[in-house]
Design goal:
By secondary structure, this protein is an alpha/beta fold. 34% of the residues lie in helices and 17% in strands. The protein has helices at 110-114, 123-131, 139-152, 159-172, 191-214, 239-250, 294-304, 319-332, 347-351, 360-376, 402-420, 424-432, 443-453, and strands at residues 11-12, 25-27, 38-40, 55-56, 78-84, 89-94, 105-107, 177-178, 231-234, 260-267, 276-278, 282-283, 291-292, 336-343, 380-385, 390-391, 459-467, 473-480. The strands form four sheets. Strands 9, 10, 11, 13, 14, 15, 16, 17 and 18 form a nine-stranded mixed β-sheet that branches. A hairpin with a 5-residue loop joins strand 17 and strand 18. The longest helix is centred in the middle third of the chain and has 24 residues, at 191-214. The radius of gyration is 24 Å and the shape is globular.
Length: 481
């Protein structure tokens, strides 16, 4: 079973070793075979051969003045994906916030220097570290130029980045409609093709339900108490892989003509530093618009204050709620309204050995949602659009074998059983006891759903493992309360 790291990393390099190897070298912009421009880290292999410049910058970068350069450079949370063009090893830069246009590429040897950009090392500190390997007085200018170029690329936490990020947020918030970001990619954009795509998945789910009806029941599959459906768990993995499992959850929705409000808690994959992100936008789908219950959202936002929309931009390219909107529209047509809420990760709580009840921001969310339901009444369902474990080389682990499959499923089943009881705190503890070692990205949304719904005992509808070619896999489940 993969081990969790001691502390959250700001630099995510899927598939690579957690730390730079001892021979990692710092290569500055404008480098080449000139030894004065290729400087190894202290303790690195001084006999390694010279290389050409390892940083590839996008065209049109600006030249900084001295006062523009961050004195204590701090790298933003980014995903750096190792790639190769057949001759060079490089790092593809992906920005979870979507602020960086396109996907710039850096040389692999830039990694060693980037790991020093944690906000505690000044330009002078960085220069001194490099000067220990070279007495060339040009090093200071090289470091400054490297930092300046990264700041131009919006890779650093700096006033330049904050200005661009705020401009994007200010432009996004007034929009009334959120366009479908994954239509034509994860599911058909043509309405006729999409209906056929979904009908086939619901047919498969119907088959599963029929099989389960004749199978012996275990504790996790016992029928829920009679009454109105209160909570659902549905995957948010790509519908081309997890569509039938998603459909299995939505089969639980009855054909009642009564309007339904669905509070959708999704995983905010790009949320950084925030527990929650609201939006009052309607969600467009190829099958028609899924309206947002704006009165409900406004009531929640009023209680949350600045935290409500601070990270709203995370909704723009997030799939965890978009996929739920597509399946809800197919199943219920225009009888459904949604309350879209993205939840951030719980890893800061785990690091501090705290629970969500210790977080004023998260507790404020729970209280605000409960109060809004009481205020407006009406039939309300709580839905967690979530996946379970993420394991394998794609996520930074070694290749996975059958023993790991067994161990991961045991961890999943423990968490599922805790959730099945309807106890949000038991769900949290089941995952926290392993320090979320398997990366359950439904950790926070499922907790929020259970706290708000207070559903009592539920049922496991379906569980499966979705495999990838490199032995990586994602596990998913559908549940109902």
């Amino acid at each position: 079973m993969p081990k969790s790291e001691d502390a959250p990393r700001r630099l995510i390099v899927p598939g690579s070793e957690p730390e730079a190897t001892q021979g990692s070298r710092i290569v500055l912009p404008g480098g080449g075979a000139d030894p004065a421009r290729e400087l190894p880290l202290e303790g690195a292999d001084k006999h390694a051969g010279a290389t050409t410049s390892r940083i590839i910058l996008p065209p049109g970068v600006m030249k900084h003045t001295d006062q523009d350069v961050p004195e204590y450079p701090r790298l933003r949370p980014l995903i750096l994906m190792p790639i190769s063009d057949g001759q060079r090893e490089m790092l593809l830069v992906q920005d979870p916030l979507g602020v960086i246009a396109g996907q710039p590429v850096l040389g692999m040897d830039s990694l060693a220097l980037l790991q020093l950009f944690d906000g505690t090392n000044s330009l002078t500190d960085l220069t001194a570290a490099l000067m220990r390997e070279s007495k060339d007085l040009r090093v200071a200018n090289m470091v400054r130029d490297f930092v300046a170029k990264l700041d131009d690329m919006l890779m650093l936490e700096s006033p330049r980045f904050e200005q661009v990020y705020q401009e994007l947020r200010d432009a996004y918030h007034p929009l009334e409609i959120r366009p479908a970001a994954f239509a034509g990619q994860s599911y058909p954009a043509d309405p006729t093709e999409l209906r056929a795509f979904l009908d086939a998945q619901f047919a498969t789910a119907e088959g599963w339900r029929a099989e389960a009806a004749t199978a012996p029941l275990d504790a996790a599959a016992t029928a829920a108490p009679a009454g109105v459906l209160r909570g659902l768990m549905a995957p948010h993995l790509d519908p081309r892989r997890a569509g039938p499992a998603m459909a299995r959850a939505f089969l639980e929705l009855d054909a009642s003509p009564e309007p339904l409000r669905v509070v959708v808690f999704g995983t905010g994959h790009s949320l950084v530093g925030d527990f929650v992100a609201l939006t009052r936008k309607h969600f467009e789908t190829p099958l028609g618009r899924v309206d947002c219950d704006t009165r409900f959202v406004d009531a929640v936002a009023e209680r949350l204050g600045d935290a409500a929309y601070r990270s709203e931009l995370a909704h723009r390219d997030e799939h965890s709620i978009e996929f739920q909107a597509v399946y809800l529209r197919h199943r219920l047509g225009d009888r459904v309204k949604i309350v879209p809420i993205l939840c951030g990760g719980f890893h800061t709580l785990l690091d501090a050995q705290q629970t969500p009840r210790d977080s004023k921001e998260f507790e404020a969310l729970i209280e605000a949602v409960r109060a809004a339901e009481q205020q407006f009444g009406g039939r309300t369902l709580y839905l967690a659009g979530v996946d379970l474990s993420h394991v394998g080389p794609r996520f930074g682990d070694p290749p996975v074998d059958e023993t790991a499959h067994t161990e991961i499923e045991a961890i999943d089943r423990e968490a599922i059983e805790a959730a099945r009881t309807g106890d949000a705190d038991a769900w949290f503890q089941a995952i926290a006891s392993h320090d979320d070692a398997t990366r359950i990205c439904g950790f926070a949304p499922t907790y929020a759903m259970l706290r708000c719904a207070s559903p009592g005992a539920g049922r496991l509808l379906h569980y499966e493992r979705s495999d990838e070619k490199d032995t990586s896999f994602v596990t998913i489940a559908s549940m109902a309360w």
